[in-house]
Amino acid sequence: MPRPGPRAAFRDWRFRRPFWGGLLLTLGGAEILLTEKASLKVVLHIGMQGLAGYLLPTLMVLCGLLTLFNPAQRLFYSLTGILLSLGTWVTSNMGGFFLGLLLGATGSCLVFGWLPDQESRRARRQRRRQARGRARAAGT
Predict the structure, then answer these.
(1) DSSP letter assigned to residue 38
(2) pLDDT tens-digit profile, the chain (140 residues)
(3) Exposure winner among 20, 41, 127, 133, fewest CB in 10 A?
(4) The model's pTM
(5) Directed axis angle between helix 74-91 and helix 19-36, to 10°?
(6) How many domains does the chain have?
(7) DSSP one-letter string for 62-107
(8) Is residue 93 part of a domain?
(9) Using CA atoms, how far apart are residues 139 and 20, in angstroms rounded to an integer?
(10) CB neighbours of 39 closer than 8 A, spacing ≥ 6?
(11) Is residue 119 part of a domain?
């Protein structure tokens, strides 16, 4: 039996976790962190919220990475991720100029909605077609 290549191994790894949700949550946090490094003419919030401006997106990146590498705890990470994403609206340049907030919120929702061991859409569709065909054959 031939061993699968790295592409097939990555595909198998990706299908066993909420990959796109974790990736979007990580990218949202990274984008917000990058906007914190913008020039002072662009930055909107400076002062006491400075620490929170770095802490919240860092935790978003951490939640996204933990989602990818520990999908068993995905519900906790998704709920924490959405709260952190919404918190960046106040603390981090309106959530990284709204783009990071949107990426983080979308990723958190995808992580929350992901179900492990769910049959693929194509397989469900094919199973329904076969059931309809059998029902028609039995009815005729």
Answers:
(1) S
(2) 566 799 989 988 898 899 999 999 999 999 998 887 766 565 555 545 577 788 999 999 999 999 999 999 999 999 999 999 999 888 877 777 889 999 999 999 999 999 887 777 788 888 889 988 888 888 76
(3) 41
(4) 0.78
(5) 20
(6) 1
(7) HHHHHHHH-GGGHHHHHHHHHHHHHHHHHHTHHHHHTHHHHHHHHH
(8) yes
(9) 44
(10) none
(11) yes
